[in-house]
Amino acid sequence: MKTLPLDWRNIILLATVHIAAAAGLPLYLALHGPTWAGLIIGLSLTGLTIFSISAGYHRLFSHRTYEAHPWVRFVLLTLGAGAFQNSALAWAADHRRHHALPDTEDDPYSVNRGFWYSHVGWVLRQADPDVKPAPVGDLERDPLVRWQQRYYTLIGVASGVALPVALGFLFGDPWGGFVIGAATRLVVVYHATFSINSFAHILGRQPYSDNSSARDSFFTAVISMGEGYHNFHHTFPADYRNGVRAHQFDPTKWVLRALALTGAVKNLRRAPPAAVVRARQRMDQRRLAARRRPSAAPDRMESDA
To answer: Cα(88)–Cα(138) distance, rounded to whole angstroms?
Structure first.
């Protein structure tokens, strides 16, 4: 397995964010004390940022599971840049390769390389120049995606740092805006997103397919706004839902449905219900057959006798 050079830009970014949050949060609380303004700014921007990755980078730009009005795409691209996880175009290229080649050496964050690698280790390494990027021609034709790609760093700093600090000034807590709304928010968003590459491939059930390591887990769904129903997603990646069942925790799905009522998004794509049922039945039958299959031990004992 090839060892790729370290990506010092990403290493420095992640280290800076984690140090700022780990050192800044206790210092802020000790010297300033918590404020409602800081808490609301942090929680609101954390939710909006995770949504921009879930609904935007993932379900819209990577999988084209629905169509969105330009103003929705603009908001998702702007907030998504503030997550500092690369441009939507580059993010989607990696993710499409993950779906095309899951659990292989060409999977950019294969869990078969270990939990640490799939969670964050892959981000600390440069991309393999020998691996051809997944095609993203549809995104390259989108003027808003091209705009974000061109000004990604500037947009990210504006929405990911300047915005929470400005809100902090507006509501009388600029340090809370920076420490909670920028640094701590980024740490939470990073690990919420990374958990889908790591935890969602080792924890949970496989009710729809065992063709990859992807699993459904309520735990990862809660921390990622619904992205944790990963086995369903890998089986039906063109579906705008991750939590296909009504009771499953998928806030991104619920918000998209609400936006569809206003006309802001449309053509929410769904897997055919019959195909979903067949997938579950097929996996149920395989599990039942595995339980009924006689073990090898009695056969060996009989042959020895």
So the answer is: 12
One-letter identity of residue 43: L
Output the pTM of the full model.
0.93
Structure tokens at 14: 């992640």
Question: pLDDT tens digit string along 164-175?
Answer: 999 999 999 999
- Closest C-alpha to 214, from 196, 194, 226: 196
Q: What is the CA radius of gyration of the chain?
A: 22
CA distances from 279 to 98, 148, 221 (A): 21, 38, 21
Structure confidence by residue, pLDDT tens digits, 203-240: 999 999 999 999 999 999 999 999 999 999 999 999 99
The Cα–Cα gap between 3 and 120 comes to 15
Do 66 and 141 meet the contact criterion of CB atoms below 8 Å apart? no
Token couple for 25: 């949060």
Closest of 275, 110, 128 to residue 208, by C-alpha: 275
Record the tokens describing residue 45, joined without a space: 């921007």
| Residues facing residue 216 across a β-bridge | 205, 229
What's the token pair of residue 43?
Answer: 């929680």
